[in-house]
Every structure is written in structure tokens, then in C-alpha cells.
Design goal:
Layout lengths: L1 H12 L25 H5 L13 E6 L8 H7 L3 E8 L3 E2 L3 H11 L2 E7 L7 H13 L11 E3 L14 H19 L4 E4 L1 H8 L11 E4 L17 E5 L7 E5 L3 H9 L1
Parallel strand pairs: 1-2, 2-4, 4-5, 5-6, 6-7, 7-8
Antiparallel strand pairs: 1-9, 2-3, 8-9
Function: This enzyme has both lysozyme (acetylmuramidase) and diacetylmuramidase activities.
Pfam families: Glyco_hydro_25
Protein name: Lysozyme
């Protein structure tokens, strides 16, 4: 009897509309992912960068988890740039995006938007369009950074979103090509080296055009993904002293301005 019931249950789970792994108990609701959602579980929990940082510029990234952000307080603490989650997949828009994106700008920060990729829900080009159409564009105003593709551990299911390494590289390529077509800028790639190795086979083909934003919660950046000889940004902790994840731009403030200006 037990064997028969298990067989029926297995059949039901294969039918259209059956709950996927991402929708079963224990998984977060769709839309709640943020930068570094899986980094702490795989790459450490955080640290303070070692050594002097006179040539680095402090930044933050925020999402709906932070709600309405006190941008003047962050400015006073020394933060000079910010990235704000705009979208996820083709199904989610950050409800706090206007306050976060405009608030950082009004405080004087150079800011940009990021997209949390879910390669198992829609194609790369479709997600790039959704991103650009909902806050992820770029303007030559000296205050807007190119959009960032957050491609990392899947908080909703299998680490590599059910894709082969070749399939993941193709998905990323489609997103980046579409973003460049829509905005004229090459998107930043945010990722963790461990994920990049596992899910793209350590592909080195994007390093010549796309700035690297590396996630590693430790005192040093550590190994970079193949192709990149230096990082542009480093997310070093998910528990900032005020709010959001904290980051260092690999250069003085004028280099942040240079990235914004294209």
C-alpha cells in the first residue's frame, strides 16, 4: 500500500502545475532574492578588508529588504555609490526602487540598478528587456552606473538553475548582448568565483567587456573568475554597519565617475 501511494505522489509531482522545488516549503518566495542571497552559505559570512583602502571607494547595494533607506546617514558614513535592485526574472519589481534609486541620487551618490537573474524562468534577452523597462537603463548624466547582472547561487532551487555550463554561458551572453543593444553600455557582472566555476565551467569570455563585481565575504578578494585580471567592485560583507551589503570600488572616486560616464 505504501509503495503504491508513493508511486501516485511521484506521478502527481510530474503533472503540469505541480509544485516545483522552488515553491516547496523551506524555499523563499519568488522576488525576495538579493545580492549575495547564497554567497554566505557557500563563501563565508563576512569580514573587514585587510590593509589600507585609500584608493578604494565605499558603496552599498540595497533591495526591498532595506525598505526606505536613510541615504544621508550612509553619505555621512562615507558611502559614495550605490546599486539598487530593480527587478528579478520577468515577474518582480522592487516596490522601494523609487525611494532607493532617487534617494541615493538626491544625496549626491552615483547610483545604478541591478537585476537578479533567474535563468530557469525566462530567456536572457527577455530578462534584459524587463530590467531596462523597469529602472535598469542608463543615462549619460555622470551619476548613473551601468546596470548590473546579479548571477549567483539560486535561492529557489538547484544552484545552476537546471542549466548546463554551456547553457548558462549562452543565457548570460543573451542578457548582456540585449542590455548593450538597449542601452549602449556593457553591463557589470556580479558573481562569486565558486558559483562561476561550477555553473559556467569558469568561462573567461566576458572579461574583456564586462566589469567584474566579485562577491567574497572575507578580508581579501581572493581568486577571480577566469579572464578577469582585476575586479572593479568587491562585495565584502552582507552585514554593513548601517544598512545594506557593503562594497569597495577598486579605485578612487574619480574611477567611479569614469565608469558612470562610460
Amino acid at each position: 500500500m505504501v509503495t503504491a501511494l508513493l508511486a501516485v505522489l511521484a506521478l502527481l509531482l510530474t503533472l503540469p502545475g505541480a509544485a516545483s522545488a522552488a515553491d516547496r516549503p523551506g524555499k523563499p518566495p519568488r522576488g525576495t532574492a538579493r545580492m549575495g542571497a547564497g554567497v554566505a552559505a557557500h563563501d563565508g559570512v563576512g569580514g573587514v578588508p585587510a590593509g589600507p583602502h585609500a584608493t578604494q571607494t565605499e558603496g552599498v547595494d540595497v533591495s526591498s529588504h532595506q525598505g526606505n533607506v536613510d541615504w544621508p546617514a550612509l553619505w555621512t558614513s562615507g558611502v559614495r555609490w550605490a546599486y539598487v535592485k530593480a527587478t528579478e526574472g520577468t515577474y518582480y519589481k522592487n516596490p522601494y526602487f523609487p525611494q532607493q534609486y532617487n534617494g541615493s541620487y538626491n544625496t549626491g551618490m552615483i547610483r545604478g540598478a541591478y537585476h537578479f537573474a533567474t535563468p530557469d524562468t525566462a530567456g536572457g534577452a527577455a530578462q534584459a528587456d524587463y530590467f531596462v523597462d523597469n529602472g535598469g537603463g542608463w543615462s549619460r548624466d555622470g551619476m548613473t552606473l551601468p546596470g548590473a547582472l546579479d548571477i549567483e547561487w539560486n535561492p529557489y532551487g538547484p544552484a545552476c538553475y537546471g542549466k548546463t555550463q554551456a547553457g548558462m554561458v549562452a543565457w548570460i551572453r543573451d542578457f548582456l548582448a540585449r542590455y548593450r543593444y538597449r542601452t549602449g553600455r556593457d553591463a557589470v557582472i556580479y558573481t562569486a568565483t565558486s558559483w562561476w566555476k561550477q555553473c559556467t565551467g569558469n568561462h573567461g569570455g566576458f572579461a574583456s567587456a564586462n566589469p567584474l563585481w566579485i562577491a567574497r565575504y572575507d578580508t581579501t578578494v581572493g581568486e577571480l573568475p577566469a579572464g578577469w585580471i582585476y575586479h572593479t567592485m568587491w562585495q565584502y560583507t552582507s552585514s554593513g554597519p548601517i544598512v545594506g551589503d557593503h562594497n569597495r570600488f577598486n579605485g578612487a572616486y574619480d574611477r567611479v565617475q569614469a565608469l558612470a560616464n562610460g
